[in-house]
Amino acid sequence: MKGYTLVRTFHLLLFLLLLYACGKGGVPAVPEEKTAETTVMVEPGPLEGLKLYLGYCFVCHGQKGDGNGPYAEKLSAKPADFTDSTYFRTKTDSELYDFISKGGIAHGKSMHMKPFGFQMTRDEIESSIAYIRVLNRHERISRAESSDFNGSEIYKNSCVMCHGEKGAGDGRVSKMLGLKVRPITGELLSQYSGAKLYNIIQDGIASDTTGSGKYMPAWGASLSEQEIINVISYISTFGE
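Predicted structure:
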């Protein structure tokens, strides 16, 4: 009987030690609940897509999306016409995403359509598709005043491809097209009033009036009045 009591006592002590070790002080440990990771879903926006389109697509596909961009005539195959609603009605967003991400060669199409999956995020590609759908439907984006981009954003997403990072005229597109882009210097800016700069950005300079080596697209249909003013303020800092 005594031996039985000792065994029970031993088992009780062992049980208490286990409780202490697991529960820190006799309270059974409660496994911590893992906090679920919160994924913020960003709705693809055509306005953001427009900004990306101006930066990546317009040079081939054109500002209107009709495949008549300034670089299109140098290509062996005409860029896709995003205004062809009959054709694009047969394409799903997933198909467009796959095409933009992997490029033309992966789909037996033009080699000039580069794979953008290495340069653009998923959200950016989806936003670009949202804007392409606007072009498919022949619509225009309703631009709220609060949605205007600042001058730096506009320049980096629309102008840098021709004018270069610092306005030296050495952008990637200017090199591809052989465009002679005048450097944006204080001397150049002093030759134009604010109103003249506004008109140039809004209406552009047609290539047939200045020779094949020069081209300035019209941004009036893509940029709001305030955005044009913002980008003029930004490029004015190049002359300081």
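Summary: Residues 13-42, 209-213 have pLDDT under 50 and may be disordered.
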